[in-house]
Fold this sequence. Notes:
Elements: E1 2-6, E2 9-12, H1 13-25, E3 46-50, H2 73-94, H3 97-115
Antiparallel strand pairs: 1-2, 1-3
Amino acid sequence: MKVYTYQAALLCEDCGKTRQTTLTVQGRRPRGYPDETTYDSDQYPKGPFDAADADAPQHCDKCGLFLENALTPEGIEYVRAKLAEFDKALAMLRHSSSANTLDQWREFYGTALKEGV
């Protein structure tokens, strides 16, 4: 996925373009644009670029969209560990009295919940 860098943040392509448009309308497009070597990404979004390899999955700092970046070997281990933690927590919840109670509520109130009553 393509990303923009702006003020030490990563933006998805839509958010990056929107920010560029907003700044342009405000008269804040840097002199020298589109030559990205003439301005700093603190002033105006740079990009779009391919999302870089990282040690964790990355998300747009504006809207939260998953940027589908490639992972380093450390990043792959990070995701494996997080998924294992999630699976373990889910399994523990499934066997807890709270989960049983929630299942009972879901079953009993099912129709009302679906209807929004």
